[in-house]
Design a protein that fits this description.
The chain has helices spanning 7-13, 26-38, 56-61, 75-84, 121-133, 157-167, 193-196, and strands at 44-50, 65-72, 91-95, 107-113, 135-146, 171-177, 181-187. Helix content is 32%, strand content 26%. The chain starts with 6 loop residues before the first helix and ends with a helix.
Length: 200
Amino acid sequence: MSAATPDAYFDTIYADDDPFGYRERWYEARKRALLLASLPAKRFGRVWEIGCSNGELTAELATRCDRLLATDLSARAVALATGRTRMHAHVDVQQARHPDTWPEGRFDLIVFSEVGYYLDADTLTHMARRLTASLQGDGVLVACHWLAPFAQAPLSGGDVHRLLRRALGLQRVFGYADADIRLDGFAVDATSVAQRAGLR
């Protein structure tokens, strides 16, 4: 079984402030827009973004919640995300290795984007179970991953989403897929947005 991606890979890529082109590529802007539009509530209480990178998605999530914890393995990424969100006092950016370290309490929304394929299957399975336990009863977990395989990733994006569907023990309540990405939302409560609004 393949091991998780080495830390040195992340140390190397963050020599560049925007190694994935989050600020400049339409692909990345579109992906963020899809993820944000998929969220089943206009606003959330407590949110956790895992793998915040340089904070481009973090800054947008900050406008949709009361409190936001953003974590990343890379110290450089944490510094960049901290700078990107400095105008949001309710955002806490921390360096952390998951699942070795884990935040206390439960979250209304967990965002798990472009992270899963850097883990090996056993670690991802363990992490998925802990993620479920960290959701509020009406909380939502959103996962989004690039589908094309690449050398630094032990798993493909498709592998990640198949494993999550098995290991989370949650219902898949929404999803989107094209040739490039897969986005899935998981929850205990499958009540739809229209049902919550009293429209059906």
